[in-house]
Amino acid sequence: MLPGRLQGTVSERIQHVFVLVLENRSFDHMLGAATGAVSPDGELRPGIGIDPVTGAATTVDGPGEQRNSHAGTDYRIRLGAPFVLPVDPPHEFCDVQLQLAGTPISGSPHDDRCTYSGEYPPIDLSGFVQNYANEAAVKHSSADLGAVMACFTDRQVPVLAMLAREFALCDRWFSALPGPTWPNRFFLHAASSAGLDRSPDPLETIGSKLAGYHFEHGTIYEALDAKGLPWRVYSGDALPQVSALAGMDLPVLLTRYHHVADLAGHLSRRRYDAAYTFIEPSYGHVLTHGADFQGGSSQHPLDDVTRGEALIKQVYEAIRQSPHWESSVLVITYDEHGGFYDHVPPPTAVPPGDVIDPENNAHGFRFDRQGVRVPAVVVSPWVPDLRSPGVPGQNCNLVDHTQYDHGSLLATVEQLFGLEPLTQRDRHANHFTHLLSARAPRPAPRTLPDPADSSPQMDDSRMDDDRLAAVADPAVAERPLTATMRGFVETAAILHARLHPDQHEQVRHRIGAITTVGEAARYLVEVRGRLAERGVRTARQGGAGGT
């Protein structure tokens, strides 16, 4: 172990945990190359740092010469990823199994009702390009199929790369299950998805969830409440996914939810009471354009990754320049891999062991396999600075090879604040308090580099909702709902029902009539307006994309 104070004192130092969870990127894609170095002949050399467990020099487990083959063409790992993709790489449960195992299970590639045999097939990581090709064909797109094998360089993502090199990079952090956003985000809040192994149900069954998603052993927010520890949510959107949890009622929305633009101002005050702060990005103009994520800060593949870089910079600098820096830790990670290649096979996992809602469990997944590896960086003045000229080629600080998943976040919060585990997943997950072992707060940069210039890009962040709605493509508006839009409609319906608890039947009738992207977009705008009228802070700003 690294030298430092006894682990028992970590909870005395850390009074504030901040968590920023971005969207849909794998470790190799975001940080596998960005933390390394490129030789004069163009060869990628992995980043070199110190293993916090052994204290010895080690290298970042980044990509090498891996490839996928499709239609007679080899697609190799390459440097330089596009900032925006024209087609979203699929990442539903069946898509991920195709990516990991090279063959679909049953049904067509887009049959999200396909079943699961009960045992995950052998993983050879051979189907990422094939799966993206299937999606591009459905969308009639000539998208670059090799984009899912591409890796950002440090010049493309200088903000995240600097934090990864400066503090602690976790290169064995896996998403919670091989599937999409919603169940993976639920694991971050509850160490469980209550059996959900796909995106939200079709609209005809959403009505049963108007009270929010319930978990047998509750969520981290309920555990903090029981301990008398304050928490907050900061969001770039009026409809953050976290609000779909049971218990996020109107009084909570009015007192615990804030717009991310207010974070720096709140932290500048001498008193900041929240022990736990969850930060959810903006999902862009999806609130008015339907399937358009542009203008957000989530780093969704359909949006410019540099906007998410700006959010990371904003959050870090707000904490770093506040009087609470020396009592804080910031964790930056991603919900799931978003269909991008990663060369490390997901390991087995401990099932949560709680009640599985049969309505949620479309594939019969047992939650005994983790999802694809995602980026994770732990930032704190208590992360030791062990960079030394005595380590040849060292360009990173701590490179932690400990196996983590989303349950590790909760396990760490539980260690710091004396909470009991929620499920068997976080009970058995490794926590990362050993990364907070410096003998004294270390120096750290007060500011981070500006995001890269990704021009040309659409800069419509100042358009108001009416203008965005007016320029929406009518052809898009008539498209049937996607899994993504079903999720946003579900969140909106849950919030709508909380604003009007006596109108559940009307809400069910309203969402049951939504069949197109345009109808969904109009409903999302309506609910956001209702939230703003009631004083919910996350809904107070015009424009979907500001950070």
UniProtKB/TrEMBL annotation:
GO terms for biological process: phospholipid catabolic process. It comes from the Bacteria. The keyword Metal-binding does not apply. Pfam families: Phosphoesterase (PF04185). The keyword tRNA-binding does not apply. One of its GO terms (molecular function) is phosphoric ester hydrolase activity. Residues 438-462 are annotated as: Disordered. Keywords: Hydrolase, Virulence. This is Phosphoesterase.
